Amino acid sequence: MRTCKIGIGVMLAVLFVAGAVTAADAPRSHIVILATGGTIAGSAETGTQAGYDSGQVGVDVLINAVPQLAELAKVSGEQIANVGSQDMSDAIWLKLAKRINELLASDAVDGIVITHGTDTIEETAFFLNLVVRSAKPVVLTAAMRPSTALSADGPLNIFNAVAVAADPDAAGRGVLVVVNDDIIGARGITKTSTTDVQTFMSPERGLIGVSAYGKNRYFRFPYRLHTSESTFSIDGVDTLPRVDILYANADMSTDLIDASVAHGAKGLVIAGVGNGNMTGAALEALERARKKGVAVVRSTRVPSGFVGRNIEVDDDALGLVASGELNPAKARVLLKLALLRTSDPEAIQKYFDNY
Which of 58, 109, 194, 301 has the fewest Cβ atoms surrounding its Cβ within 10 A? Predict the structure, then answer.
């Protein structure tokens, strides 16, 4: 009987050690951080000043500043660009998206984190949401305070972003933005304050989830087509069509509409008043633009709401497209990609209805 007890004890000890070795040796997710610059990589002379220079810190510095990342995943980094996001461009978008698609096609990469400036992160996120060809997690993060600031928000945002990118439950939710403990979908995110750390909101659809010190909870999936479901492709694409955004106002002049067309715009997005409205003269100018083959989308300068079709403007008669929930910045992104395929307003409207 004593021998049996010893045998069981030894067996349990062996199993315990084997389990510990297995857990220690279990492969971790490989997350690649692609850095593009922004405030999160910014630097100032002191930790308490408002002014700073964006894009001063490299990706290796950002990673080394958060040694706790090793608890979450194997992390490597690449520098795609190092600019303030006010200088984000079509060229950087294409370079970034193509590199993401290349990395995610490999079994050795499980997810992507992109560090970015806050000013145009919603545009980059939505662009990637339409052209990334994988269901693996793609997560953008940013900061409202530079890396040198007292109580900088960047390190924890990076930690949470990697936690989401390494989380299998994040797969299939489209491109995400993780900031200030929130997980926000690319289609819904918008910046709402120039300086507040809690600047990002999703006015119409709410959060995808939350991430608190790397612990994630998810509430929903996106309801429109994205990433692996998207039919958009940038394979072989080196440039994107020019699309201008024009801001509507009382007594709106037609000069800017005519000038955009004259200078080569293939598409126009009107940040209209109310439900995407504008002056009668502006509508006449848009009718002229349409006759020259320019695609026109009506969005709104109002922070939230839905721009409906054929409500106060006869979109069918004028050949215009209603943006739905997409704000002017995101409407511009979708229109640029749609114009790679067609300038027909009915076909473009279907893209706006589905994406």
Answer: 194
